[in-house]
Amino acid sequence: MQLSTLQTLNSVRAARQAAVVVSDLSDGGSQVFPEGGPLPPMWEAAIGEALRSGRPRLAELGGRSLFFNVHMPPPRIVVIGAVHISQALARLAPVAGFDMAIIDPRTAFATVERFGGVELLADWPEDILPARPLDRYTALAALTHDPKIDDYPIRAALEAGCFYVGALGSRKTHAKRVERLSQAGVSAEETARIKAPIGLDIGASSPSEIAVAVLAEIIEALRRRDLTGQQGEAK
Question: Where is the XdhC Rossmann domain (predicted)?
Answer without folding.
Answer: 77-218
